[in-house]
Specification:
Structural class: mainly beta
Number of helices: 3
Strand order of the largest sheet: 5-1-35-34-33
Low-confidence stretches: 1-42, 323-335, 432-439
Mean pLDDT: 86
Radius of gyration: 28 Å
Shape: globular
Helix content: under 10%
Distance between the termini: 67 Å
Largest sheet: 5 strands, mixed
Number of strands: 35
Length: 488
């Protein structure tokens, strides 16, 4: 075109005088700093599978007790403040295990890195007008999935799991007696199947039994308690499901005789409603700032409660067994009413948000208590040695809060997650007793860590995980709206 009309191209060019004209600019040019530091973003994803359908934070996760590959997660449907709650079911069995690779694999530039499997939703949990805050499958068979929301609703679905062909979910009903539900825990008693307890922001505690065959009243209230004067922050059943222990921001601990088993043995507190009653009025038990976590000994001998300022209190529990004790002429239920403060521990510097207890299968067995703190540390106590400090891992999750702790059942292996977005596993038989940062974690028993969430406390922490009984796969719920599947 220019070859046919050269005069047109020439006319479009600037005149020589115009080209030489200097255009003044009052603004000074900003020189580029060649030495400026460039922020390097390194992404590491150790997962074998992921579920990324949620649009916002996942606050809750629950694993089916019979089919551990069936996972429920819940949170918020969108970033807006008034967004409804949302939840999903997915199956991790679709995630392929990765073979053990030779050492040369990682250094082979031609090798294709292993891919993470995208998981699909099997079912969506709806009906909440605010975030789903907690989830639980009922025991012993996982017949029902129960969700609790910041809208105060408890919603229930019946689950018909069909191995090899998915799961059929049917909404059974809902109840709304409170403004916000903080936690839900399934009762493990074989005599009281499909029963759950919940704790609310107004301090109340409710126990329901679910009976889908009663269409007119599928969610039946068994008990309700109103002794806490501030939010009920955590609760746990004894291993036999006979007693329920709850704690509150008002620094109180109550152990409830839900089924009347303690009353039948003449064990009751002065209030006539609980079997153990400890509040901040007792200076030995007072925790200024409240209690936020609880764990029960696998033998049902004690409850550990954790709270503000790094405080941990150990309280004996009633023994309701009628087996003979070593005291001639007395049964164990005669001698152990519970309620004694066995220990007051204060090793960590900030609130204890998570507790876990393990009875190891070693000979002799050892009872371990692990406490996770907002200061990023994990402290492990040896209950068989009067709760002496066995290990204080002061930099377990660097400066970020430890969100959850859980032992692999009957082992020395402890799994932790935090707001740094990392999941770690510790072997408490090995390593040194203390540590100051993540760099020395191997010396403190760190055997494995998994990364993939955004982390750094900026909306990318791990808010929960499940790991089954054997701990061979860990599934997470992330503040970044992603669930990841990690394999040991």
């Amino acid at each position: 075109m220019s070859a046919n009309h050269p005069e047109e191209d020439i006319d479009d060019l600037l005149d020589a005088e115009d080209a030489a004209e200097e255009i003044e600019n009052d603004e000074q040019d900003i020189a580029m700093d060649s030495d400026a530091e460039e922020e390097e973003l390194i992404l590491q994803n150790d997962s074998i599978a992921y579920f990324d359908l949620p649009q916002d934070s996942l606050f809750a996760i629950a694993q089916h007790p019979v089919h551990p590959s069936l996972i429920a997660v819940g949170g918020s449907a969108a970033p807006e403040d008034d967004a409804p709650g949302a939840g999903w079911l997915f199956d991790t069995s679709a995630a392929e295990s990765r073979p053990v690779l030779p050492a040369s694999y990682a250094s082979d530039p031609a090798a294709e890195p292993p891919k993470s499997t995208q998981l699909d939703s099997l079912y969506s949990l709806d009906g909440h007008t605010d975030s789903i805050n907690t989830l639980a499958w009922t025991l012993p068979r996982g017949d029902f999935l129960v969700s609790g929301g910041l809208d105060g609703r408890m919603r229930v679905w019946k689950a018909d799991v069909r191995p090899g062909s998915g799961v059929a979910m049917k909404h059974v009903g809902e109840a709304q007696e409170v403004e916000e539900i903080n936690w839900i825990s399934a009762c493990p008693s074989p005599n009281h199947e499909n029963t759950i307890a919940l704790g609310a922001s107004d301090g109340s505690v409710w126990v329901y039994t679910i009976d889908a065959s009663d269409a007119s009243n599928p969610l039946q209230i068994v008990q309700s308690y109103f002794l806490h004067t501030a939010a009920c922050t955590a609760g746990a059943w004894t291993p036999d499901g006979q007693l329920l222990a709850t704690v509150s921001e008002d620094s109180s601990l109550y152990v409830w005789d839900v089924w009347g088993d303690a009353a039948a043995r003449n064990i009751t507190a002065d209030n006539g409603m609980s079997v153990v009653s400890l509040t901040g009025e007792d200076q030995r038990f007072e925790v200024e700032g409240g209690l936020y976590s609880i764990a029960i000994d696998p033998k049902g001998a004690f409850a550990a409660v954790g709270g503000a300022g790094g405080a941990v209190k150990i309280v004996s529990l009633p023994r309701l067994s009628t087996q003979s004790s070593n005291v001639r002429g007395k049964s164990s239920s005669d001698a152990t009413a519970g309620g004694q403060i066995l220990a007051s521990l204060h090793t960590q510097g900030d609130s204890v948000e998570s507790l876990a207890v393990s009875l190891t299968a070693s000979t002799p067995p050892t009872t371990l208590l692990a406490a996770g703190s907002v200061d990023g540390s994990i402290c492990v106590y040896d209950a068989t040695r009067r709760f002496a400090v066995r290990r204080h891992i002061s930099g377990a999750h660097e400066e970020h809060s430890v969100v959850k702790l859980e032992f692999v059942k009957n082992t020395w292996l402890l799994t932790s997650c935090g707001m740094d977005g990392v999941v770690r596993r510790w072997d408490l038989r090995s390593g040194g007793a203390t540590g100051t940062n993540a760099a020395g974690a191997a010396d403190r028993g760190l055997v494995k860590e998994w990364k993939g969430h955004r982390g750094d406390g900026e909306g990318g922490g791990v808010l929960g995980f499940v790991q089954g009984e054997m701990g061979e796969r860990v599934v997470t719920a992330g503040d970044d709206g992603i669930a990841l599947v990690f394999e040991v």
